[in-house]
Specification:
This protein has three domains: 31-270, HUPs (Rossmann fold), CATH 3.40.50.620; 282-350 and 490-527 and 534-575, Orthogonal Bundle (Glutamyl-tRNA Synthetase, domain 2); 354-486, Ribosomal Protein L25, Chain P (Beta Barrel), CATH 2.40.240. The mean pLDDT is 96. A seven-stranded mixed β-sheet has the order 10-23-24-25-21-22-11, covered by helices on one side. The protein contains 13 helices and 25 strands. It has helices spanning 13-24, 45-60, 79-92, 110-122, 133-139, 157-169, 218-229, 244-256, 282-290, 305-311, 315-325, 336-350, 567-575; strands at 32-35, 64-69, 104-105, 126-129, 178-181, 196-200, 214-216, 233-237, 266-270, 352-354, 356-357, 360-365, 379-384, 394-399, 402-406, 426-429, 434-444, 450-459, 477-478, 481-482, 487-494, 519-527, 539-542, 546-550, 557-562. Bound molecules: adenosine-5'-triphosphate and magnesium ion (MG). Adenosine-5'-triphosphate binds next to α2, β8 and α9.
């Protein structure tokens, strides 16, 4: 159990709603939700919220949650996105055969949707409009501006049916005509001003191929797909609030005609997830990928689930974060540091402690003993794998007369309160010995200054294991890696991909806030030999430096997941 599991249950108004439904016997106590991604990009952290809301609600009420691909636009969708979504969903913890049956596809309902559209035409509730699309949207009017009725609005039913069938047959060009619902051009809700139900698209669909020339709009497809599947609670984000009237209108027409196989589903909206320093628009994430600003959808800086996975975020910590922030109807932006605090809490329990030196500086022990062959002795020292979990035990690490420390851990000329290695100062090497600095070597840095190339120390053999028998104290414990035994790795350090808290807030263009130096790749980092066996994708703690994830594909590449400091706690303190 992590600390996160002990936090109180967050407010979730959707859960309250379901309780109320059950008390009143709405939907006969049935709870069915769906997660409806459009396969036009990868899942991101925002989707994680929708996923947990949909799946956890169904779980809590012994209901069903479907994975339904909302694949109604052949121009932007692709089968590769379908596969990635299924994979990322499984990683997050929602698997086919366990959490949902088979993936469902709105495209499987194209025929039924088509038949229902014909029904609306026959009832005089839909018509074919061949005006250009910009004129149609202009005629929609606006708040306080009246709508203008299309000259084709009162086309006879037979003519509408004929045109619609010929649209399906592929007789007309893209964008040359649409099918519109005939509702009310003066409705106060713009969505109700004769919305478009079908468009002509020549593109090839990733599942239905060339079978269809016309494609349903989101509004026409969504509620009807819910009804076909028997969804009860159709949960979506707040921007669909204004679509609810239309959602209900379509379903009511079909219910009145006796067409619905189940109770009429109901749409409920909740606030989107937004995070500081984070952009979660699939379209713009695609732009980052296409313009090469990142390595791909699964770049460790991306807020996609596959990016976060590469970065080393445990799936549990993402679920815990989503549970913690709860579900409401108020839009707000959460601090990315809050998400990171869940990641850190998890990793603190899970991650094995290891030693790694990212910017190495060589240290030589001038009084180090040699063996009979004249070689420097190698001492094995015992180190704790994880102080948070005794069961993880200990490991041995080799220590010898030459080792690496961080460049930052030595100062020839120390500032005040610098307690690490400096001339004359004694420090502890974690688990090994006390060493005292006796000198250092430099070389000309080519800029009129000097660079320290090597530090000289003596060690105290009495302090093996890192404690002095005489009880004397040192102010600093440092990590180290034996030079003769180190394995080398590349380590990627990250800044925020967007340096502004709210990307795009200042100029209106999120890309203006892109940090061009969000990744620093360090090569030739020195790692303790044990780290050569780190499984791909595993996360370890490099002592004093943070949590680092072994790349899932490339051996000996590590990504810094998060640092050790709880920045969220600091933010909370600052806010008082
Ligand atoms: P994007 O704006 O990134 O393209 P989308 O809403 O178009 O997102 P879909 O694939 O249609 O992406 O979304 C599937 C589901 O995930 C929808 O129910 C949508 O409301 C939800 N969702 C998308 N982004 C967020 C978010 N930031 N917070 C909560 N839910 C989200
Ligand atoms: Mg969408």
């Amino acid at each position: 159990m992590s600390d996160a599991d002990d936090r109180p249950t967050a407010a979730n108004f959707v859960r309250d709603l379901v309780h109320a439904d059950n008390e009143q016997g709405t939907f006969a106590g049935r709870v069915q939700t769906r997660f409806p991604p459009e396969p036009n990009g990868y899942l991101h952290i925002g989707h994680a919220k929708a996923i947990t809301v949909d799946f956890e609600l169904a779980k809590e009420f012994n209901g069903v949650c479907n994975l339904r691909f909302d694949d109604t636009n052949p121009d932007t969708e692709d089968a590769s996105y379908v596969d990635a979504i299924i994979e990322d969903l499984a990683w997050l913890g929602y698997r086919q055969g366990e959490d949902y049956a088979e993936p469902l596809y709105a495209s499987d309902y194209f025929e039924q949707l088509y038949l229902w559209a014909e029904l609306l035409i026959e009832q005089g509730k839909a018509y074919v409009d061949e005006q250009p699309s910009d004129l149609i949207s202009e005629q929609r009017g606006g708040y306080g501006n009246p709508g203008i009725e299309s000259p084709h609005r009162d086309r006879p039913v037979a003519e509408n049916l004929d045109l619609f069938r010929r649209m399906r047959a592929g007789e007309f060009d893209d964008n040359s005509m649409v099918l519109r619902a005939k509702i009310d051009m003066q409705h106060e809700n713009m969505q109700m001003r004769d919305p478009i139900m079908y468009r002509i698209r020549a593109g090839r669909h990733h599942r239905t191929g060339d079978a269809w020339k016309i494609y349903p709009t989101y509004d026409w497809a969504h509620g009807q797909s819910d009804a076909i599947e028997g969804v009860t609670h159709s949960l979506c984000t707040l921007e669909f609030d204004s679509h609810r009237d239309l959602y209900d209108w379509y379903l009511t027409q079909l219910a009145d005609a006796g067409e619905l196989p189940h109770e009429q589903p109901r749409q409920t909206e909740f606030a989107r997830l937004a995070l500081t320093h984070t952009m979660t628009s699939k379209r713009k994430l695609l732009q980052l990928v296409e313009e090469g600003k990142v390595d791909g959808w699964d770049d460790a800086r991306m807020p996609t689930l596959s990016g976060l996975r590469r970065r080393g975020y445990p799936a549990e910590s993402i679920r815990e974060f989503c549970a913690f922030i709860g579900v409401s109807r108020t839009n707000s932006r959460n601090e990315i540091e809050l998400l990171e605090s869940f990641v850190r809490t998890r990793l603190n329990k899970l991650a094995l402690r290891r030693m790694a030196v990212l910017r190495p500086l060589e240290v030589v022990v001038t009084n180090w003993p040699t063996d009979e062959a004249g070689e420097p002795e190698v001492h094995q020292v015992e180190l704790v794998n994880n102080p948070e979990n005794e069961a993880d035990g200990t490991r041995m690490a080799p220590f010898s007369g030459r080792f690496w420390i961080e460049q930052d851990d030595f100062r020839a000329d120390p500032p005040p309160k610098y307690f690490r290695l400096t001339p004359g100062r004694e420090v502890r090497l974690r688990g090994a010995y006390f060493v005292t600095c006796t000198g250092f070597e430099t070389e000309d840095d080519g800029n009129g200054g000097e660079t320290v190339t090597r530090v000289l120390v003596t060690y105290d053999p009495e302090t093996r294991g890192g404690n002095a028998p005489d009880g004397r104290k040192v102010k600093s414990t440092m990590h180290w890696v034996s030079a003769a035994h180190a394995v080398e790795a590349d380590v990627a350090l990250y800044e925020r991909l967007f340096d502004a808290e709210v990307p795009g807030e200042a100029t209106g263009d999120v890309f203006d806030d892109l940090d061009a130096h969000s990744r620093e790749l360090l090569t030739g980092c020195k790692l303790e030999p044990e780290l050569a066996d780190t499984p791909l994708g595993a996360v370890v703690q490099f002592e004093r430096l943070g949590y680092f994830a072994h790349d899932p594909d490339q051996p000996m590449l590590f990504h810094r997941t998060v640092g050790l400091r709880d920045e969220w706690a600091n933010i909370q303190k600052r806010k008082g």
